[in-house]
Amino acid sequence: MNYPQPLIDLIDHLKVLPGIGPKSAERIAFHILNADKESAVKLSQAITELKHKIKHCTICFNLSENDICGICGNDKRDKNNICVVESPKDVQSIEKTRNYNGLYHVLLGKISPLDGIGPDDIRIKELLERVEKNRPQEIIIATSSDVEGEATALYLAKILKPFGVKITRIAYGIPVGSALEFADEITLTRSLEGRRVF
């Protein structure tokens, strides 16, 4: 590229973002370059503010501007249930359903030996401390259905069993509006295993 160095630097920084390839990075960089100065400054300030103000809740590790997030600090939440998820984005996905009123525990990852991520690299120890201290009635494991998510779920079920707490796993199955012919065998198997009385 024969662009001025600041433009090359911006493109290089944008390329590392998920889902942004070289062409998209170049388009975004030129959009920022051609935007009015005020818009570019506001974008820069929003990024800086994000990095300075957002942290992880000291209880559940969800995103928060304070030491304790709005969910953990809400007295109306059901303290008897803890839903274990991989990331703060998963919390938002479940919250959008408006069907769950318990607490969360965000692992900030999943066990992935190929990537060098073991149980000590995610927030499992803190989950065990919460269960020991608060004795919830149910732990809902809501990790993803990929190999790493399943490995994490199995590991959690094993280490939580001695606490005598009810351990459940979210059901997986056929997406709403989809036809059976397009479902793979594993999805169909999980759909049959997770069936309930109609």
* Rg of Cα set: 21 Å
What is the architecture of the largest domain at the second tier of CATH?
3-Layer(aba) Sandwich
CATH topology assignment of the largest domain: Dna Topoisomerase Vi A Subunit, Chain: A, domain 2
Average pLDDT score = 92
Main sheet?
4 strands, parallel
- Share of β-strand residues: 5-15%
Q: Oligomeric state of the chains?
A: single chain
Order of helices and strands: HHHEEEHEHEHEH
The proportion of residues forming helix, as a percent range, comes to 40-55%
Give the CATH level 1 class of the largest domain: Alpha Beta
The tally of beta strands, per DSSP, is 6
Shape call: globular
Question: How many domains comprise the coordinates?
Answer: 2
Spans of 5+ residues with little confidence (pLDDT < 50)? none
| SSE-based structural type | alpha/beta
End-to-end C-alpha gap = 62 Å
Question: What topology, given as strand order, has the largest sheet?
Answer: 4-3-5-6
Written account of the structure:
This protein is α/β, with parallel strands linked by helices and 198 residues long. The chain folds into two domains: 5-53, Orthogonal Bundle (Helicase, Ruva Protein, domain 3), CATH 1.10.8; 77-172, Dna Topoisomerase Vi A Subunit, Chain: A, domain 2. It has seven helices and six strands. Helix 6 (147-160) links the parallel strand 5 and strand 6 (166-169). Helix 1 crosses helix 2. The longest helix has 17 residues, at 37-53. The chain is globular, with a radius of gyration of 21 Å. The model has no long low-confidence stretch (mean pLDDT 92).
